[in-house]
User: What shape does this take?
Amino acid sequence: MLKKGEGILKKLMFLTIRDKNALDEYIKANRFRNVKDNMRFAGLLGYGTSKSAMCRYIKRLKAEYDENKF
Assistant: This one.
């Protein structure tokens, strides 16, 4: 059974792997419009429930999927 918020995680993972700019645009577009979902996303990953915590995770995720891995 999927936990609430896992769909957001999967979407962000897909965007990160396929197109890092798309991930950035997704975050920018949703940061203020959908703060509750972003906070749930950060909380789901154990990074706390703040936008800065979510951004720290995104930076780490992007670093893991750098161009050398493709």
Summary: The chain has one domain: 6-64. Residues 6-64 form one domain.
